[in-house]
Every structure is written in structure tokens, then in C-alpha cells.
Specification:
Helices cover 17% and strands 46% of the residues. It is α+β, with helices and mostly antiparallel strands. A hairpin with a 5-residue loop joins strand 2 and strand 3. The chain is globular.
């Protein structure tokens, strides 16, 4: 769908106003993984008119990223911080961006950023004890990221990373369905240096994330990257109105809660039972 057609069908609320949130990132290191999860479960987390990539297939891509750097919110002095995001890859809703993702979980150590996002209905978790450790090495370094309990769902991202050696520019759109409409968060990275990685995602198998990935861990079969970039910016667009009847039906079937940003899925008792049996 073109930008013009999308804007006509889903007009912006307060479109004459500038974006409410301006975020800058500086001196960043980032781990990114893209794996495959069951489309059946993923659909429970998506609100119309957002559409999953491969919606008619048995599996669809899950994106997980963790970035550490200096975070500046709305012109405030940048401070060291961490952001961890997980979401489901989308067909581009407005035809923009190199990648489009529906936000399912968002964690940050920056309280101001979490508060700003939550004002727009995005359930960003402020997690002061987020951990991000990168140890450079030759020929490979190590990366370890942890979102600790009692945050739901807890997760960890661990593995080895190569030396970044390829320069790219990148635009990523992360979308979130809220009570006021669809919010678009656009991150623009003018220059990043990227390399390969070998990462594993782990979580509580009885959590919504565990249900989505089908167990306690997920290997990233589609893409794994370790990136560095000196600067990036994020802007949050005003909510886009969606069809009221369609939206009401979606949220009646998949109510928003604190654990999952868009919809809700119940823990799979089979996965939970299997995990408990396999514990040492």
C-alpha cells in the first residue's frame, strides 16, 4: 500500500502536529536476530490492519534486538542506556522502511523513554537492571543480554559475534497498536557497520514469549547480526486511526495487557510440562 493510500485510509490523529517523541542514540553496539515462530500463535498478537509477513505460511519471522549506547530523549542530555525489543515482521503498512515490525515487547533502562512511550499506550517496561555485556575478541567476541525476572516475559540473548566490516544505512519502522490507534516509531541509522553473529534467545517456556517460540529457546535461522553505529534518531508519529468496529473486534478477541504489547496468548501447558520434566 502506498503512503498516500495508507494515509487516506488511516488518517493521522493531529497530523498537523510534530512527532511527540524525539530520541537520539550515540556510540551504539547492537545484536539482532531474526528467527521463525508459529504463525498461528503470532496472529494472536497482531491487530488489524497490520499484516504479518508470510501470514498464509506455517511460520513467520520474529525479530529480537538489543542495543547499548547513549540515549537522549526530547533534547535531554544523553545518558548510557539499553533498549531491548521483540516483535513480528510485517508487510510494510505504508510502504516505507527497510524493515517493519509489530512491537510485542519493549524494555529499556531509560525511565524517561519508557514513560514517553507509555503515554502513547506502548507498554514499554522500565527495567533499571537490564544487562548488556559485550567483550571484544579476536577473531570473535561475546555478547550477553539479560532482561531479568520479575519482568514478564524475561529473556536473554547470548552468543558470539564477529567483527563488523560492512557499511550500510538503515531505516526500521516499529509499529504498535494502542487504544488511540496505531503508533509508528521510525529509527534512522545513517551509517552502521555490520557483522555476523551466532546468537540464541532464551526465555521462560511458560511465558507468552515461550509459547510463541515453542519452548525455552530459539535459534535465529533467518538472520543474525552484530552492528555498531555512531548515531541514530527515532521519531514517534502521532497515532493513526483505524476502523473503529474492526479495532473493537480485534481487541475484544485479543485484549492488550502488560506482558504483550499488542495482543495476548496463553502459556502452552504442553510446553510448560515438558520444560518442567526436563529441568535437572
Amino acid at each position: 500500500m502506498s503512503q498516500t493510500l495508507f494515509d487516506a485510509k488511516y488518517p493521522h490523529v493531529g497530523s498537523n502536529e510534530p512527532p511527540d517523541l524525539h530520541l537520539t542514540l550515540a556510540n551504539c553496539v547492537e545484536g539482532v536476530g531474526v528467527g521463525l515462530v508459529a504463525t498461528e500463535w503470532a496472529k494472536a498478537l497482531i491487530a488489524a490492519p497490520l499484516q504479518l509477513v508470510g501470514a498464509a505460511e506455517h511460520v513467520t519471522p520474529l525479530v529480537v534486538l538489543a542495543v547499548r549506547g547513549e540515549i537522549g530523549v526530547d533534547g535531554q542530555r544523553p545518558t548510557p542506556g539499553i533498549i531491548v525489543q521483540a516483535g513480528l515482521m510485517l508487510v510494510p503498512p505504508d510502504g516505507t522502511g527497510d524493515v517493519n515490525v509489530a512491537t510485542c515487547w519493549y524494555y529499556t533502562s531509560n525511565g524517561r523513554l519508557a514513560h514517553s512511550l507509555r503515554r502513547w499506550g506502548i507498554p514499554a517496561h522500565h527495567v533499571p537492571k537490564l544487562a548488556f555485556e559485550y567483550l571484544p575478541g579476536q577473531p570473535r567476541g561475546t555478547l550477553s543480554v539479560e532482561v531479568p525476572p520479575p519482568v514478564e516475559p524475561p529473556l536473554a540473548l547470548d552468543g558470539s559475534v564477529g567483527q563488523p566490516n560492512e557499511t550500510i544505512s538503515f531505516v526500521a519502522n516499529w509499529w504498535a497498536s494502542t487504544a488511540n490507534g496505531i503508533v509508528k516509531m521510525t529509527t534512522t541509522i545513517p551509517r552502521a557497520v555490520v557483522g555476523e553473529a551466532s546468537l540464541t534467545l532464551t526465555t521462560d517456556p511458560c511465558s507468552a514469549l515461550g509459547t510463541l517460540i515453542g519452548g525455552p529457546s530459539l535459534e535465529f535461522a533467518v538472520l543474525q547480526r552484530f552492528n555498531t553505529f555512531a548515531a541514530a534518531r527515532l521519531e514517534l508519529a502521532k497515532p493513526i486511526e483505524i476502523n473503529k468496529e474492526q479495532s473493537a473486534n480485534t481487541f475484544a478477541n485479543h485484549p492488550v495487557n502488560e506482558s504483550v504489547g499488542i495482543g495476548w496468548i496463553r502459556p502452552n501447558p504442553v510446553i510448560c510440562a515438558r520444560s518442567r520434566r526436563n529441568k535437572p
